[in-house]
Amino acid sequence: MADDEKEEHVRPPYAYYYPVPRDSSFGDSMLVWYLSVIRRRIWTVVAVLVVITTIGTVNAFRAPKIYQAAAKVLVERQSSRLIRMDALSQDGGGWDPEFYSTQVELIRSQAVMEKALEQKGVAALFHSEPQNAKRSSWVREATKTGAALLGFMPAPPPEAWERLRSEVSANIIRDTHFILIKSQGANPQRAATLVNAVAAALEQYTVERRMENLGDVFLFLEKEKKKQEQLLN
What we know:
Blueprint: H1 2-9, H2 26-40, H3 42-62, E1 67-74, E2 81-83, E3 88-90, H4 97-107, H5 110-117, H6 123-127, H7 131-135, H8 137-149, H9 160-166, E4 169-172, E5 178-185, H10 188-232
Antiparallel strand pairs: 1-5, 2-3, 4-5
Helix pairs in contact: 5-9, 5-10
């Protein structure tokens, strides 16, 4: 019986027992326990913090500088006039969020991006393959080979206008008639060139559409003129 009682009181290895208090001071005791652990490992914690801070500082100084170019474009909604012989209606020109959201999507459209590529010096920026793409060319070729072996069609490379769109963003300045076109990159001259090209392309596209609308209005007036002349005759 004595041996059995001894075996029952023998604690298994790697087991720890501590009394669990039943009052509200349980949380305070656990906090004190955690603080005591941190106090015993204070130098380890300090060493880890110093190493992490040093690595972060070195990486911050070694990281390349990122430049941002921005162009603020004034976009005003033209008053649409429907000319009739009996009435003349005109829309207001206030701030319309749907209109300016449409203008943002227009800036990022293929039509505007292709016109931006026609600007001087812009197309040459996208004819050459980027440096990071050259470095990962073997990875891309391996991926294409693996996809071909599995029977998948490889995705076509992005076109020049799609690469230009990925480097340019447009945001609405709320309660104003301005749209902010921005571009970021390690090369400030490249960012400024892209922003100016997109802004000029938007202006050119808007003028062309306006001329088309004026041509449609002129044809409409010519038809109305002929109708009225026939009525008078």
